[in-house]
């Protein structure tokens, strides 16, 4: 059954349509009727019939004819705006779907459950809960703990003072799921009956309006968690795939649920915690992990285009400084670039060139990318522990600083791809350079994102302010640390998307030569959504398409089977060594004494 999301005077309403033969005018009237139903004064209208309106698409603001059939004029899950006669729209307002709602535009109720006990939730589990892939249930042990814990707290739901735009549905689901997990530990004093009601609300995807700003990470995320609790008790606004944005009481009623009636001492149980910081931290660490893996693949493709050598990735070199992340990144480069395992015509074309070594941005990828991997692993370990307890934010400051390096080195590789004196390719990767600017402005965009990240990487944990009449006189500013870490990671993804497009464009100028099989698969993936540049065109949709491939881990999915196959076969060298080269391993096999030296 088609469903449309309709914007009426600041409210988003989900309107199902049982018959595609209904008209655009019917959709407008039905949206107005639902709007009036949710307003105490019927929105100032006596009846639907007296309301005169126009219907526009939110995307592009195209005006629709009220007589057109819905099945012809609109697509399923499309967002539209009902403009009521007499209303004056702000010139600064362009209606669009709420941030994150696209994740629910094709929502299907999950069938599988994740059992929460307060002790074993992982970052991956929480992100999957946020995406609506699972429902929640409690373990029997958790139920017993909750039944035994009805003391210690005082009830308050008066801290709802957050500001800013609301969390996306995905992030709000993560916040609610994590709060349930903490309550399941049995230390918060909430009754089992109330906790089960909260779980029913989560499983129905009824999500409170939670502003993203308003926590300093001191005594907990009181403001955002109070907004979360407000919807649970039937106050304020809520959103669900079925109802859209509406009054919480109506949303709960539409799903056959009743507002939670708080028992004595249950208020603080719902709002005292740091789940806002931790849930955003989980998303940050999972996205950082995904982009770090794919950064190796993008960089390997760039190295091929720039005709670099793989000798810098040989096992012996990295065995001397055996940092775990560095060794893993070097291995991934070997698995993608090994000409013996995956013959590369591009590599063979310059095997015996006179170049001595590549720039740092190419040959030092294992060292730079490797420490990012180590940073992510460190922070993920902390966040996983905090998932089942409390949280603090210096780890998220550390994550932002570490992941930023992926964008910083990627931007330098984009420069090498675009600069004809460094790449031996056409300037800015486009033919007829005098007429076309190619990747010139895309490189500027990458540089701007890297520059912005430098400011965002300033640690929020060094900027404490005293609150609560000086009783909370040293606070972590953890909410801001989590939000800016996500912004840094998004910028990193976008910079790497630009590098991915630039590397694939560079391949065009090396044809008919082919690269290794796994990198050809990556090239084919990109070309399935973005065509080559023959002359200048609007590039923003192409960057967004490449960003989406990275965000959905499609680049990793096509390359991962080759990496794992290579891992199983234990191939020690990346490419045949030249007759004058040697390896530490060969010396050992021939019982040659290897001198110990700090310079090794």
From TrEMBL:
Ranges in a coiled coil: none
Domain of life: Eukaryota
InterPro entries documented for this protein: Aromatic_Lyase, Fumarase/histidase_N, L-Aspartase-like, Par3/HAL_N, Phe/His_NH3-lyase_AS
Domain Par3/HAL N-terminal: 13-80
GO molecular function: ammonia-lyase activity
Pfam families: Lyase_aromatic (PF00221), Par3_HAL_N_term (PF12053)
Family to which this protein belongs: Belongs to the PAL/histidase family.
Protein name: Histidine ammonia-lyase
Originating organism: Microtus ochrogaster
